[in-house]
Specification:
FNR_nucleotide-bd, Sulfide/dihydroorotate dehydrogenase-like FAD/NAD-binding protein, about 35% helix, 7-stranded antiparallel beta sheet, Riboflavin_synthase-like_b-brl, 16 strands, about 280 residues, Elongation Factor Tu (Ef-tu), domain 3, 11 helices, binds FE2/S2 (inorganic) cluster, Dihydroorotate_DH_Fe-S-bd, alpha/beta, 7-stranded mixed beta sheet
Length: about 280
């Protein structure tokens, strides 16, 4: 059993929990995910790791309520337990595995959209811990849905916040900020890491392709059970079939077939869709 030591509502339908899971905390790296299960009958829910404290044995997860299981999860309080908290799973972010001197030579731009700020945060924090200054763009629909702003501000070299409705900081999409930084302010980036809603990642990739900036995306949003069994996260990357939960969740965004992945994501939202997809497999 895994004890929840902190449970907090960050914004409408978005929750943060610190969970006692020393083995996961010891081993996890930015980019990886865990699978949580409330009890015997609960669904398996894959969630990207938002933060970890190896000394205290804590792992931080952030989730948005989207269905029955996450609604049940949101009701849990500090002192409650998860039956399962399995991980770390998936592949760590590429830069974690690389020679640090090579990573230091590059200028990174992180783009976080909505709940995507949660998986972006440990990556930006990792960069800070290794003395690397990165630029971060954080976008949300509205001010009330913006999460982890203070944490990102503390870890980033520069943080640019934008809201779709202009209720806070600048108004507009994250793509407009990228354009502004590159075209008007003359910033040069060697790598962009974009994590957020599929539609956001699709348009960020379209733009960064035009701008010639290699881009990594995390396909965490399309995972359903995180086991390689359900087929929900099947995606074509550079003409090859991949599974986000096994081969990813991070991929070269310029090679991802977003339209196909989004269609599957829609189908998996309904029971009938899931059945139809299974028949095709
Ligand atoms: Fe089910 Fe990857 S999430 S196969």
């Amino acid at each position: 059993m895994y004890k929840i030591v902190k449970a907090e509502c960050l914004a409408d339908k978005i929750y943060l929990m610190d969970v006692e899971a020393p083995r996961v905390a010891r081993a996890c790296q930015p980019g990886e995910f865990v699978i949580v299960k409330i009890d015997e009958v609960g669904e398996r829910i894959p969630l990207t790791i938002c933060d970890f404290d190896r000394a205290k044995g804590l792992v931080t997860i952030v989730f948005q309520t989207v269905g029955a299981s996450t609604l049940r999860m949101a009701e849990l309080k500090a002192g409650d337990y998860f039956q399962d908290f399995v991980g770390p799973l998936g592949q760590p972010s590429e830069f974690v595995k690389e020679d640090i001197e090579e990573v230091k030579k590059r200028k990174y731009l992180f783009v976080a959209g909505g709940v995507g700020s949660a998986p972006v945060y440990p990556q930006v924090k990792w960069m800070r811990e290794h003395g690397i200054d990165v630029d971060v763009i954080e976008g949300s629909k509205t001010k009330d849905l913006l999460i982890l702003e203070d944490e990102l501000r503390a870890a980033a070299g520069n943080l640019y916040v934008t809201t779709d409705d202009g209720s806070y900081e600048r108004k507009g999409m994250v793509t407009e900020v990228i354009k502004d930084l590159v075209e008007n302010q003359g910033r040069k980036y060697d790598v962009c890491v974009a994590i957020g809603p599929m539609i956001m990642m699709k348009f960020v990739c379209k733009l960064t392709k035009e701008l010639g900036i290699p881009t990594i995306v995390s396909l965490n949003p399309i995972m359903v059970d995180g086991t390689g069994m359900c087929g929900a996260c099947r995606v074509t990357v550079g003409g090859e079939v991949k599974f986000a939960c096994v081969d990813g969740p991070e991929f070269d965004g310029h090679l991802v077939d977003f339209d196909q992945a989004m269609k599957r994501q829609q189908m998996y939202k309904t029971e009938e869709g899931r059945a139809a997809l299974k028949l095709q497999e």
